[in-house]
Amino acid sequence: MKIAIVGTGYVGLVSGTCFAEMGIDVTCIDVNQEKIQALKEGILPIYEPGLDELVSRNVKEGRLHFTTSLPDCIDQVSLVFSAVGTPPDEDGSADLQYVLAVAREFGKNIKKYTILVTKSTVPVGTAQKIKAVIQEELDKRNEQIPFDVASNPEFLKEGAAIKDFMSPDRVVVGVESEKAKELMTKLYRPLLLNNFRVLFTDIPSAEMIKYAANSMLATRISFMNDIANLCEIVGADVNMVRKGIGSDTRIGNKFLYPGCGYGGSCFPKDVKALIRTAEENGYEMKVLKAVEAVNERQKSIVFKKLNNYYKGDLKNKVIAVWGLAFKPETDDMRESTSLTTIKHLLDAGCKVNVYDPIAMNECKRRIGDTVHYCKEKYEAVVDADALLLLTEWKQFRMPSWPIIYKAMKTPLVIDGRNIYDSKEMQENGFTYYCIGK
Length: 437
Fold this sequence. Notes:
This protein is an alpha/beta fold. It folds into three domains: 2-201, NAD(P)-binding Rossmann-like Domain (Rossmann fold); 211-297, Rossmann fold, CATH 3.40.50; 299-433, NAD(P)-binding Rossmann-like Domain (Rossmann fold, 3-Layer(aba) Sandwich), CATH 3.40.50.720. Helices cover 44% and strands 14% of the residues. It has helices spanning 10-21, 33-40, 51-60, 97-109, 126-141, 161-166, 178-187, 189-192, 203-234, 238-246, 267-280, 286-298, 301-309, 337-347, 360-367, 377-380, 401-407, 422-427, and strands spanning 2-6, 25-29, 64-67, 79-82, 114-118, 147-151, 171-174, 198-201, 318-322, 351-355, 372-373, 386-389, 412-415, 431-433. The strands form three sheets. A six-stranded parallel β-sheet has the order 3-2-1-4-5-6, sandwiched between helices. A six-stranded parallel β-sheet has the order 11-10-9-12-13-14. The protein has a two-stranded parallel ribbon with strand order 7-8. Helix 4 packs parallel to helix 5. The mean pLDDT is 95.
């Protein structure tokens, strides 16, 4: 079986590589010639654990190819996946220009029955727009070539994307015809053999499932952050509260960890897009608006704790920041709490030392030399007036506190992810603040 995937960003490259690992012949396409050339040379545009090895093996074994041209391979494939970006517009709605551009290219070049499968996260109703664009191009050609569109949203967690793809808890596929269902079933048969669930739905439902899933997870995070903030006020321990409610089987214990806000490429964008979709259809998503507002407030909570400790006098204070990526095992800093925190620190006149195991280059690309980039975590705390933990990398979980105590000017630690033990911190001489306790 041969397929093409348009877009070699996070979703496209991971999906294409994993399909190739399953034995499918995959051509990954991108208009960025430099990116394609780099991929051919084994240089990946993203960081994902294990992906470089998988790409190298499948290229070597002839199952994974890279090109800038969809027309060059469209005759040989039965499925074309669209995995291009859908960045948010200023009003929060998803920008569909790249998705529709793929549809237009598809309509201009198909010569036989082919399915265009949308892997990108798109609002409900996008499939109809895609169909209209394809049909418009076929009409221009005066051709009556049969085609189908389908929706196959991704549910990949950055840092664990390969495992998520190869061992999914579910695969959602929205189709309109039996022929499309048969072809998508054939594609995912290796997963079906292992009893992994492939859920077939209508296309609008598949489009909605992705937004609804991410919005529900974002809601749980913001709910727990709200509870954590209240726990601090009333003297409760959010960790005990989390365990208490998580033991209820109706609730479960996933995504109940308080912290300093969610970020990344999915949750913020998808919550905004779903709010906007509702507005366009005359409905207000009051819960999601609150989720978004709580998260924006939470991104400033670590800075507020620091500012309160120093009673608003932060000028020339040296602040160490551990963690820049929005989560561990990725270099992705989109909507990361670190960006918000660093801006607050710089605006307050602080000198900022930063360290992240992976995201240093990405940080420099985003904010330049406004901060000092450290070669390792202990360098960041030298003469520091505070240490802020923003990303719960494994490398930060068991540091040498005696070394840090000696290196810091003021032994103050503000833990934005609740990974340290307050008793241990106090025993080592630190003033310690976390979230919800």
